[in-house]
Amino acid sequence: MSVLDTQSIADAVESAIGSIACRIESGCLRALEQARAKESRASAAFALDVMLDNARLAERESRPVCQDTGMVIVFVELGQQVRLQGALLDDAIHAAVARAYRPLRKSVLDPITRVNTGDNTPAVIHTSIVAGDSVKLEIMLKGFGSENMSAVTLLNPAQGLECAKDFIVDTVARAASNPCPPVIVGVGLGGTLEKACLLSKHALMRSVGTPNPDAQLDELERELLARINALGIGAQGFGGDTTALAVHIERFATHISSLPVAVNILCHCSRSATIVLQGE
Question: Tens digit of pLDDT for each residue in 10-52?
Fold first, then answer.
């Protein structure tokens, strides 16, 4: 059994937000550079140049990489052998978000009154209990130009995987230039309505450019990426070769009478970090 104060978790979250608000995830940045190197359309190449210049300037000057500093998503994997002490875990994370956003744009509000909470809280926190004596934090700042383009459906299983593929590609096609492409496409297959959505969001935490450890899903990701890039939407909707930088898929068992499919779209500036804290 190890002991970890939730203040340590809060400090890690606060520090991570300050950093990732100003930089694109390294795999995503490499993918943008590769997309620029092979781009054949002048207007799309110009858009990619602007994206890369913006990313480098933001990191160098410690400025937010996007004016939409997003809503904070935190996936917590809590080791079963860890005993937390101090403030409640969620309270500690919310307090960390409030501190981290003092110099950043606050975009979170009540859905009915539309009154801003004033500190970008609450964060969206998903906690799971796992084996071990450490705490893993996966943190993302999710902008809503891309979030608003996401979609979920529950297919009849007779429609099969081909229909699921069409839904994924069509979702990106309908989004067009709205989510600031080239995008990263997170896909959740299976589970229930809410599980599929959760899978699709968590899929976006994987570093761009890393293969799916599931060989079957890796092949499916490659197929879908090719289909999506054939849409010709291109960088910022200017056409060209790269509409998506990656497709990331996670799956879960589902009921015999359904095939849930969720698509969560992420813009070209993936802002995320993974931190592991060890108890004492």
Answer: 999 999 999 999 999 999 999 999 999 999 999 999 999 999 9
CB 205 within 8 A of CB 267: no
Distance (Å, whole) CA 111 – CA 12 = 29
Burial tier of 209 (Cβ tally within 10 Å: 0-12, 13-18, 19+): middle
How far apart, in whole angstroms, are the C-alpha atoms of residue 129 and residue 46? 46
The answer to whether residues 225 and 276 touch, using CB atoms and an 8 Å cutoff, is no
d(CA 253, CA 226): 26
Say how many CA atoms lie within 13 Å of 47 toward its Cβ: 23
Q: How far apart are CA 264 and CA 151, in angstroms?
A: 7
Evaluate if pTM is beyond 0.85.
yes
Confidence of residue 279 (pLDDT cuts 50, 70, 90): confident
Is-contact 185 248, C-beta < 8 A? yes
Tokens representing residue 101 in the block: 């956003």
